[in-house]
Amino acid sequence: MLTNISTVLRACAQRNGAAAVVSARNYADFTSQATFEIKKSDVFKLDEAPATEVVMTRDEGLQYYRTMQTMRRMELKADQLYKQKIIRGFCHLYDGQEACAVGIEASIKPTDHLITAYRAHGYTLTRGGTVKEIMAELTGRRGGIAKGKGGSMHMYCKNFYGGNGIVGAQVPLGAGVALACKYKGSDELCVCLYGDGAANQGQIFETYNMAALWKLPVIFICENNRYGMGTSVERAAASTDYFKRGEFIPGLRVDGMDILCVREATRFAAEHCRSGKGPILMELQTYRYHGHSMSDPGVSYRTREEIQEVRSKSDPISLLKDRLLSNNMASVEELKEIDVDVRKEIEDAAQFATTDPEPPLEELCNHIFSNNPPVEVRGTNPWAKLKSKDYILD
Amino acid sequence: MAAAAARLLIRGSHQTLPISSVGTGKQSCIGNALLTLSSGCNSRLKTQRRHAAHFTFQPDPVPTQYGSTQKMNLFQSITSALDNTLASDPTAVIFGEDVAFGGVFRCTVGLRDKYGKDRVFNTPLCEQGIVGFGIGAAVAGATAIAEIQFADYIFPAFDQIVNEAAKYRYRSGNLFDCGNLTIRAPWGCVGHGSLYHSQSPEAFFAHCPGIKIVIPRGPTQAKGLLLSCIADNNPCIFFEPKILYRAAVEQVPVDAYTIPLSQAEVLQEGSDVTLVAWGTQIHVLREVANMAQEKLGVSCEVIDLRTILPWDNETVCKVSGHHSIVSIIVGHFIIGI
């Protein structure tokens, strides 16, 4: 990829002559890696903290940039399609929180497991879904990652357990997955995410207890974006120190807008789990630009100034971009090319998502049970009998 | 009771409409079936690309016995009922997720400003906690009105409702009870709600003695029934058909009034078949009854059950021997008694 970029740039230079001399930079001109100072994470019941001096290579930087930009553009495209009524139902957008998903993925293995709540498009992407599959799932077509039957909140792929609509319900599930990892002795762990609103659910505390009691390899991550739907954290929680809520589980509070902070903290947490020390809790302080869902304008419980401030001072993609540029790890043109590339990918995916056919009627009732003879399912009138094909071989 | 119903069904002789239970989702169930039976209507079904929930709300006649009335939709009638309650009962409190600013369906708009933040307050996101807390408040003497944001989220509170609330009076030998508790929740499908904003879970609770379940069909009914639930000395669950919140508009009495619980209402007399339902389906059934009369010459009796538990089996079963009963259920149904 790097040689291609430099070839293209050189070709441009040859065409444009002297005016393009500046852009004809060989990849060897860039710094291959740099060390960065990152914010110290607050710790709870831990003697050590994640490192504050971290190294990022050029390749890593470009990959993070590309993934975050893809995520951002995908969410904005989903916003557009929703307003055009091509996506219907519910749509909870993740823009602003990209650093969390990408940072976490950077420090776990593809064989590790992850489960989250309904703001799941970003994680579906980092865990292996393609933009095409994600968008087709949003529009409910057969090319979707859940065959068009799940929609925005129910996206799944290998080692990614969704995509869950009921608040807080995914946390005990995550502990269960971690138990399976421990049982199999496979050195895998489970990353179990929930939000600041869900942090007040009873089942979270039940899970903390089980995870700590049985020393399960689970990283609990609270994505604190300051608002549970329309309720700010101060109005919902007796203690907004979500990283301390585990009480007997060690905790970290991390700047969730800085991808390097997230990556480093996840690395620290993963090591903690894999060394058999049991669960650990991470609070990522992050922010969402959109409202809770597409039916929430997002400005009745917070000011536009606040959103603007976060966008200008702490946007995760801008932070990364500044780092890459000021450390001579990439050029403006290179990043612009990635932007153009990403835009095209999203356009193609949107095109696919809009034109792909819907799942056939025969698929509507499948997979209610498993390995059962076909069951008759009631339809919208007693004469419209649908069948559920539940054979395991299907 | 089950035997009596079965006997009635067997006795139903010359019926063309089979006994059936129609499921969740689209509202135009029997209606569609009748359309397919009659010629010339198939083209309309075929051209409909998106089968959105299709029914026409049929408003009740203006009540004259409760004083002056005002035009209100369903959520406004709920607000009115709650307003009446907070005004007359100093122990009444309303709590739930997001109720302070008015609620996600605007059922509690203005109440916090009017009655104070200690009487209308938000809870954190914890249904089990909300209901448990509500039971405790009710036992201690407060008129507790708990809101569950969507009926789909009531399940974490299922244990509290079934094991704690329903059995409190019995297990304490009438020493304690949580009759002051009323739980309200938006109910039923809207077309785009999918798995978790569409459920009608009354079936799960309908087999639990000790609680009452009430589902209104419109604003006038809703206000009267809600006020009855609040006044009733038993824990009540009041499901509000969310699709009717804005769509249902009627002239509703401004003052407080009650509609008795456990009394079904016969909306339309008929001699051939009895149609029983509750909530939104009543409006479908009224259309169906008219269609059946016009196109098939079948005279249908339409009954609104209103209180699901304990249900008015006297009214429903008080039908002449040659009726068949068609019960239209919108909700979870695999087996029923």
TrEMBL record, chain A:
Which reaction equation describes what this protein catalyses?
A: N(6)-[(R)-lipoyl]-L-lysyl-[protein] + pyruvate + H(+) = N(6)-[(R)-S(8)-acetyldihydrolipoyl]-L-lysyl-[protein] + CO2
Annotated GO MF terms: metal ion binding; pyruvate dehydrogenase (acetyl-transferring) activity
Cofactor list: Mg(2+); thiamine diphosphate
What is the name attached to this protein's record?
A: Pyruvate dehydrogenase E1 component subunit alpha
Domain named Dehydrogenase E1 component: residues: 66-361
* InterPro entries assigned to the protein according to its UniProt record, in alphabetical order: DH_E1 (IPR001017), PDH_E1_Alpha_Subunit (IPR050642), Pyrv_DH_E1_asu_subgrp-y (IPR017597), THDP-binding (IPR029061)
Task: Please tell me where this protein is predominantly located.
Answer: mitochondrion
For this UniProt record, the keywords arranged alphabetically read as follows: Carbohydrate metabolism, Glucose metabolism, Magnesium, Metal-binding, Mitochondrion, Oxidoreductase, Phosphoprotein, Pyruvate, Thiamine pyrophosphate, Transit peptide
Q: Does the keyword Cell membrane apply?
A: no
Top-rank taxon, per record: Eukaryota
CDD domains according to UniProt: TPP_E1_PDC_ADC_BCADC (cd02000)
Query: What are the BP-aspect GO terms?
Result: glucose metabolic process; pyruvate decarboxylation to acetyl-CoA
One cellular component term (GO) for this entry is: mitochondrial matrix
Give the source lineage, highest ranks first.
Eukaryota, Metazoa, Chordata, Craniata, Vertebrata
The record lists the membrane-crossing segments as none
* Stored Gene3D superfamilies: 3.40.50.970
EC number(s) per entry: 1.2.4.1
Physiological role: The pyruvate dehydrogenase complex catalyzes the overall conversion of pyruvate to acetyl-CoA and CO(2), and thereby links the glycolytic pathway to the tricarboxylic cycle.
UniProtKB/TrEMBL annotation, chain B:
Q: Which GO terms describe its molecular function?
A: branched-chain 2-oxo acid dehydrogenase activity
Q: Which SUPFAM superfamilies match?
A: Thiamin diphosphate-binding fold (THDP-binding), TK C-terminal domain-like
Whether Ion transport counts among this entry's keywords is no
What PANTHER family does this protein map onto?
Answer: 2-OXOISOVALERATE DEHYDROGENASE SUBUNIT BETA, MITOCHONDRIAL, 2-OXOISOVALERATE DEHYDROGENASE SUBUNIT BETA-RELATED
Task: Please verify whether the record's keywords include Metal-binding.
Answer: no
What is catalyzed by this enzyme?
Answer: N(6)-[(R)-lipoyl]-L-lysyl-[protein] + 3-methyl-2-oxobutanoate + H(+) = N(6)-[(R)-S(8)-2-methylpropanoyldihydrolipoyl]-L-lysyl-[protein] + CO2
Q: What is its EC number?
A: 1.2.4.4
**Gene3D superfamilies reported for this sequence:** 3.40.50.920, 3.40.50.970
Q: Where is the Transketolase-like pyrimidine-binding domain?
A: 72-247
Q: Which CDD domains match?
A: TPP_PYR_E1-PDHc-beta_like
Protein name as annotated? 3-methyl-2-oxobutanoate dehydrogenase (2-methylpropanoyl-transferring)
Organism listed in the record:
Cyprinodon variegatus (Sheepshead minnow)
Q: Name one GO biological process term.
A: response to nutrient
Q: Which UniProt keywords apply?
A: Oxidoreductase
Cofactor(s) demanded: thiamine diphosphate
